[in-house]
């Protein structure tokens, strides 16, 4: 039976190598938090507040190549969601003003697990009328179809159903990443 004995130099080298790889991995996560490179999204449907079925792929095919859709998954019982929605409304408005004809940003707010009545109430509470398309996902099918872990979740999609940006949760870093992405549109 062989016994391996590491010298102190070998141990230090192993620790340094591990630390270097770990720091590189952490830097990768920090730099790319909130971005996803053109990942395709499977098709699914929501319901608007008139209880009409809205098919995602049909709506996205109506967009021009320069347009994007912010898809915000939220919930009536989610406090961070209620804080994030006004920020998304403001970012959408500011981005559309800065694009000035070079494309547009649409905002859909999807109430996951909420019924139509609750969706209408929170649409009024959050002042979403005429500012965003309000949809409901009463059966919470978004969790499996979009592979979201929790609320709030923000996706930015193009006309080809590709996910250009994704963030889960509501933190300063994800909001900053979203602002950077929206600022990059039209450049």
From TrEMBL:
Gene3D superfamilies: Glutaredoxin. This is Thioredoxin domain-containing protein. InterPro entries: Thioredoxin-like_fold, Thioredoxin-like_sf, Thioredoxin_domain. SUPFAM superfamilies: Thioredoxin-like (SSF52833). It comes from Leptospira yasudae. PROSITE patterns: THIOREDOXIN_2. Residues 35-187 form the Thioredoxin domain.
């Amino acid at each position: 039976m062989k016994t391996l004995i590491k010298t102190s130099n070998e141990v230090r080298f192993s620790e340094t190598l591990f630390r270097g790889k770990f720091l590189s991995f952490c830097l990768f996560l920090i730099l790319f938090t909130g971005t996803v490179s053109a990942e395709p999204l499977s098709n699914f449907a929501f319901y608007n507040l008139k209880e009409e079925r809205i098919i995602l792929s049909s709506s996205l095919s109506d967009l021009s190549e320069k347009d994007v859709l912010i898809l915000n998954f939220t919930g009536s019982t989610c406090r961070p969601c209620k804080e994030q929605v006004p920020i998304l409304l403001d970012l959408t408005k500011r981005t559309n003003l800065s694009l000035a004809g070079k494309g547009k940003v649409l905002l859909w707010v999807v109430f996951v697990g909420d019924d139509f009545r609750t969706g209408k109430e929170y649409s009024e509470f959050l002042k979403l009328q005429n500012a965003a398309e309000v949809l409901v996902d009463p059966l919470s099918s978004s969790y499996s179809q979009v592979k979201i872990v929790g609320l709030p979740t923000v996706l930015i999609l193009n006309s080809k159903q590709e996910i250009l940006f994704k963030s889960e949760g509501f933190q300063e870093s994800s909001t900053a990443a979203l602002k950077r992405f929206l600022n990059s549109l039209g450049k």
